Amino acid sequence: MSGMADPIAGCAPFVRLVHDFQAGQIFHLPARRINDHALLYIHRGEGTLQTDGRDQAVGPGTVLVVPPDREHAFSLKELSGVNLLNVHYDPAQRADSTAVHWHQDARRPRPPGAPGPLPADQVHVLTVHPPAAYVAAFRRLARTWPAAAGSDLLVQRASMLELLAVVLRRFGSGGSLPAPDPHLERARRHLDDANGPVRLEDVAAVAHLGRSAFAAAFTRHYGLAPMAYRRRSRIERAKADLQWGGMTVKAAARRAGFANVQHFTRVFSRLVGEPPAAFAARTRSAE
To answer: Which of 12, 154, 255, 267 has most Cβ atoms within 10 angstroms of its Cβ?
Structure first.
């Protein structure tokens, strides 16, 4: 409607906190409410989210979209240590935005601010794919925080908008996605983590589905066929390694599971639009 403000057009986010949170093998967040917006990305760890009186399984590659004043709690475990990539923000800067106190005080609640670009009706659980794309966007944002004013603040805002765009794409036309199927999620993580050759029938077996049924279900849920997803995931991982990890093309190709640099360069160039060496030179010089 013409009389209503567009929350996307009016979004000029102020970043209140960026935190690469490292915990032990078990981490429990007790029930809480926050007074701003948060994106809580599970980098390592599996467990259960409790919100709105229901439990939901969560794991690596999951982002919790937490709006203000919505109660939530979760428990995670991971042998190598739980890792969360957390961002708290206001959709538009407020007088108290710089005061990083995000717990909602029931006695003196922070009033709601401007609406943000993401749905705020409940705590939403989304699966981002490929995970490396979200992690790379978070790392870019982390490099800008904290920012005092001027051009640094603009760069930080642009990085936050990029991260929000990654999440917003998973909401499609504005509605929430269904809860991720645990069998498909297990298969997706298998595709992300596998280093050597992967056969479709083996991944389908991880999801306890036949080959054709698995391919159809995976494509419907993630928007890419399984092997196309795997190629994209490997290249996104390589992009992050080239830009932020300082790796050579050969090292990035090997870590992404490619047998030789020539094949890696062909796939990278087709999906990214430029060879990996050119991508690395361009993105590193822009930092």
So the answer is: 267
Q: What domain range includes position 186?
A: 182-285
Task: Report the alpha-carbon distance of residue 117 to residue 6 in Å, rounded.
Answer: 9
What is the dihedral angle through the alpha carbons of 54, 55, 56, 59, rounded to the nearest 10 degrees? 150
Of 194, 275, 266, 209, nearest in space to 242 by CA: 275
Residue 55 is which amino acid?
D
Number of domains in the chain: 2
Reference 59, options 131, 109, 112, 122; nearest CA is 131
Residues in a beta bridge with 58: 47
Asked if residue 231 belongs to a domain, the reply is yes
Cβ 98 vs Cβ 145: under 8 Å: no
What's the pLDDT tens digit per position in 35-79?
999 999 998 899 999 998 889 999 988 999 999 989 999 999 988
Q: Based on the domain organization, do 137 and 270 belong to the same domain? A: no
Are both 86 and 154 inside the same structural domain? yes
Residues 18 and 160 in one domain: yes
* Residue (of 139, 136, 137, 89) closest to 114 by Cα position: 89
- Which residue bears the tokens 């790392």? 139
Query: Which position has the token pair 């908008």?
Result: 161
Phi-psi region of 244 (alpha: psi -120 to 50; beta: other; left: phi over 0): alpha
Residue 180: what pLDDT?
Answer: 58
Q: Residue 2: inside a domain, yes or no? A: no
Across 7-16, 228-237, 239-248, 253-262, which has the greatest mean pLDDT?
Answer: 253-262
The more confidently predicted of residues 105 and 249 is 249
Mean pLDDT of 207-218: 93
